[in-house]
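To the team - calcium ion complex, inputs and output below.
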Amino acid sequence: MKNLVNLIVVAFLFITFSSCQEQLKTPKLAFGKALPEKYNSPDGMTIGSDGYIYLSMTNVNKPEFPAKVLRISEDDQIEEVIDLLPHPKTGVAKPLGIVFGSDGNLYISDNQSFASEEPGLSRIFKVTMNGIKAVKCEVVAEGFNMSNGITTRGNEIYVAETNLNAGGDVHKSGVYRFELSELNPENPVKVTGIGDPHLIWVIETKNKEITVGANGLAFNSKGDLFVCNFGDAEVLKMLVDENGKVTSTEVFASGNGMISVDGMQIDTEDNIWIADFLGNAIIKITPKAKVVIVAKNGTTEGANGELDAPSECIRRGDKVYVSNIDLTFGPNTTDDIHTMSIIELK
Ligand SMILES: [Ca+2]
Ligand SMILES: [Ca+2]
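Output:
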């Protein structure tokens, strides 16, 4: 009898495990091949009104290749948009989050903490667009330690500062808010951390080992803001009025198999899409806060399209495009196979 019970338990576990595995989607290699060496670490993405995915090619793994904005056409061809402005001190740009402002220009976080340990070197770029042509790249805000996710609502731009470095406290991060009219290349905004009127929210990451804080952020169709707190694997929700005043905050989703929460995008159905860098997974969170692990695999080089330390994902139609930034951090080791993945939803 006891053996029979054991057998039933084993069979049940096997079936449960198998069905969970079956629900996971298998990512495939984007573009049918690895990226060339000159495109060695993709990160932030946004979709333009032209239907292209605009992509930050941060090239953190091989900085001898200049950081660029690329775009991906609806038939998955890659085009170059513009080379980004090197920092005078480090000689490189390190773009992460990217978004179109309501003025039709691109706003991009330049995370100089990838290039230097000196605090305060990170910036926000404005890439002036004329139709599909990029005209110039200029600095419109500076003084960040690690400018990261970036998003927009109306004439506002929101930026995640992953490390406020407040008096050496590595657990504090936050969200800055700017009016587009303030972002003038003639006179860039200089942010100053705690006490800066642009800093509308400070986040405390509780994880003592992974202290990485505010990361991806995005608005849903109602204008509610969601922010990833990377180290605590939680998605925070905040309401911000039109004057930039935070009126409520809550934990919207946490845990449920998420190990970390990195880049975030929200699709047209208000599903939140998150790259779980440490968990090597792509997560969907429904508007009702149900956490779904869409794809996940072990550490890899990504040669067959496997997830390889993904840092951002974005849904376009029935495909989810994944940037495998492939940084040496947590369980992952940087390798020489540079890839993006695509997950087909249908
Ligand atoms: Ca790789
Ligand atoms: Ca790898």
